[in-house]
Structure formats: C-alpha cells, structure tokens
Design a protein that fits this description.
single chain; Amino_oxidase; oxidoreductase activity; seven-stranded mixed β-sheet; FAD/NAD(P)-binding domain; alpha/beta; Pyridine nucleotide-disulfide oxidoreductase domain-containing protein 2; 512 residues
Length: 512
Amino acid sequence: MNYDAIVVGGGHNGLVASFYLARRGLKVAILERREIVGGASVTEELWPGIKVSTGAYVLSLLRQRIIDDMNLEGNGLYVYNKDPGLFLPLGGRKNLYIWNDLKRTQKEIEKFSRKDSLSYSKWVRFWDSFYQMADFFMLNPPISLSEVGDLLYRFKGSIDEETLTLIGRTFLQDARSFLDEFFESDEVKSALIEDSVVGTFASPSTPGTAYVLAHHVIGEVNGIKGMWGYVRGGMGGVTSAMAKAAVRVGVDIITSTEVEEILVKDDTVTGVKTKDGRVINSRIVLSNTDPKTTFLRLVKEVDNDVTKRISALKSKGVSFKLVGYTEELPDFGNGTSLSPEHVASELIMPNVDYIEKAYDDARTLGYSREPWLSINFQTSVDPTVAPSGKHVFSIFGQYLPFSNKLDDMKEKIAGITIDKIREYAPNFKPIKYEVITPLDIKRRFGIWEGNIFHVDMTPDQLYVFRPTVGMSRYRTPIKGLYLCGSGAHPGGGVTGAPGYNAAHAVLEDLGV
C-alpha cells in the first residue's frame, strides 16, 4: 500500500492537514488508533442516550478560513452561541454574568465597581486590536525575532503604537498583573482570568500566562468576535464534519489502526508500520501526535541531541474532567428552571488568590484541595445529546498533575469537585458521572502525560521555540516528517491552525 502522505492520528488538526493535501492532488491516508476519528474533539455515548464531549467541550478558536474552505457548515457543523459566556457565583445571591453585549456586561460589573465598568470597554477595545492580528499569527508559520519589526510596521496604520507595545508584552507578562492594569475589583478579575491558566501548570502570577489568556480570547462563533459556542451533538460534530470534507476530496480514513513506528532510512521517512505488522509506504508523514510521542516512541532512531531537547519539554498535564448527567439543573440562587447561568460556563473561582492556592496545593500535595472549576451544560441549548429531563454536564478542573497513580485519586477528586459545587448549588446531584484524569487523557487520546496542549504554552515553548528550536516550522530533522498537532505552532485548542500550516509547509516543499 502506497500513499503520498500519511497522517498519524485522526484528531482535528490531522483532518485539516489531510484535507488541504488531498485537495491539491496528493493521495492521503489518516491512520487513527481508535474506532472513531476526532482525537480529543469527540462525542461519546457513555450511557444510553447520554452523549458527552469527553475532551474539548466548547468551540471558538477554529479559524473561519478553515470552516469556509472545508465547507464545515455544509457538512453538518452547527454551533449554538454560548451567551452569557461566563457566570461567576459568589455565594448567596451575589454573582456576575459576562455577556457578549458590552452594555449588558458593564451593568453587571457596576455591581462591583463603576470604575471597572468603564474600564471594561477599554478591555474589549484592546482585544479588538488583537483580533486584527489573529489570523496573521495563527495561519502562518511563527515569526522569528528578526521579523518583529516588520510585524509592527505591518499593523502600524491600523493599531496605535501603545496598543502594539501592550500586545507584545502579553507574550511575557503574567495574567494577574495584566488584569490589574485594567481592573480593581477582584470579582471582575476572577471572572476573566480562567483562560490564562487553562491547561497550564502555572498560577495567574506566572510570567507568560497573559499570552495563554490572549490565545483563548481571539476566536469567534457565527461571526461574533469573542463568542464561544456549543457544537450541536457535542464536539464530535466538528470532527465528523471535517471527516466528511476530507473524504470528499479523496482522503482514506482508516480507524482502529495504531501506528507502531514511523519508518526512517538514511534520515528520510519511508512510511509507517502498524501495530498489526503492516508496512504502509509514503514519502511524507505528518504526525498529529504530540512531539514526545513522535520522537520518544514512534521514531526509533533519533539523534541524541534531538532526544534531549524533546525529553526536556514541559508536558505535564494538570487538567481533569467530570462528565455525566443530572435530572435537575443546579440552583445557584435563581431556581432550577433553565436560566442564563446554565448556558454560561459556571466558574467556581471566587477570587484570584483561590486559584493561586489551588496551584500551590498541586505543587506540594499533587492535587488541589479546592480546585477551580468550569461547569458547562450542553443541554442548556442542545436537546440532541440527552433524553428529555436529563441534563448533560462537562466539568473542567485544575489542578491535578499527571501521575501514573491517578486511578487511586478518582473518587477523591470526584468528591472534592461535587462538594465544592454544592457550596454554591446545594442541589447538584449527578445521576452518573465519569472522572477523566490526565492519566485517562493519556490512555484515551494518546497524549503524553495527558497534556491537553501536547506541551505547555509557556514563553519558552511558543512561536519559534515551539515545540523546540529547529522544529518550529513543522519540519523536523528527518526529511519528509512533519509535525501537525497542537505541539506545533500556534498551540492548543480546537483551532485547526497547526494542521493548516503544516499542510502548506508540505505543499511548499513539494512545489505543489
């Protein structure tokens, strides 16, 4: 069996890469070890009639160019707006909603600080400037340090110099001090700071977390900037639409086929060998797996310097999930009838120090005694994922650092999580649930140490340094082997950008 290109792993980036290669006439196959494609963007029916997003659970960062090129909407993708986006319960009847509408959010913020209400418009305007640069950053190879001046010149006419400087500083600044520059109210800062630490073994005061925040706020849904949404049918709706698009341009998607080895001869890729012993020849291999899995497991003979650099990458996963269903929506003070807070991500993080303490616990104890949580009810907008009267939830939490002993922690983590939610919504009572630890993420999705970004998104592992020096433009020291997963630029999240950029690097090298 021979192909022009083989993609190892059928996650969303692998699907995107395969589409762009096949559309240009290459014979392409995706090899996926699971029985379903989608990687960590899947919907799984864990109980009869109950469909949950076991990995990614909300959508915003997928680039519109990819949605249009792959005709994902025509292939079945439908996204419900998540508005309000955030809900912060603070005990009693005290709470804060963050809506997509500026004026409505400002009115909410006035409950805590009139000054912050006015500052919020400045906050929104700042990110509007960032949006102008988003596709340039996302859908291109990373710029080098020598190209920074050219970048500033490119946007000088549309973005003022002070804002450009502030944008540049977000790459290195900590999120806590960054938010301090805009707001005085701890409640407002708490509502906005979650994205700075999601998926990252860092606290809000760790340098570089301002960029993690920036990475998560430059998306859109249904043409609305900054909006997040729920995908109809769960996150598998994204990758099933991508799979349809890929098949229509000729991609062979082969499931239940695990790659045992990426074959290399004379520093040039020759194909892959599957776990059942088959050899599939190809002049190009794109690895949608993380860099450590690629070079420490799949490529058997690697230069010692490469091994050292890859081994040293920070990749410890710290995120856990509880997925399941209830028969009653949580009562945060407004009753159990469907309310705006049930559409929003309900954040259990009453103040910034709470997140700092959760991080400190994880460093010293191996888990957070009081984790910060993001609770999402898919059924608040999407009736397709559960029978009537059932409410599907996805709880994302931190911190739980990867360990091979996490199976012993599952019930403890479940108890801590449910008890914490009940402090704000005493009626919260899951009928069924499953705990997904970083160890489970490793086993389920094949990600080294269960890191949802493949490797940490810290300043030393971003842009020209991602995943490491010499591999930041998708090419590797092995001719014909490319990286197309979240461990490549621009990083994690359901963006499609690493797959898009890697495919175009291949086409450039082939002269196609």
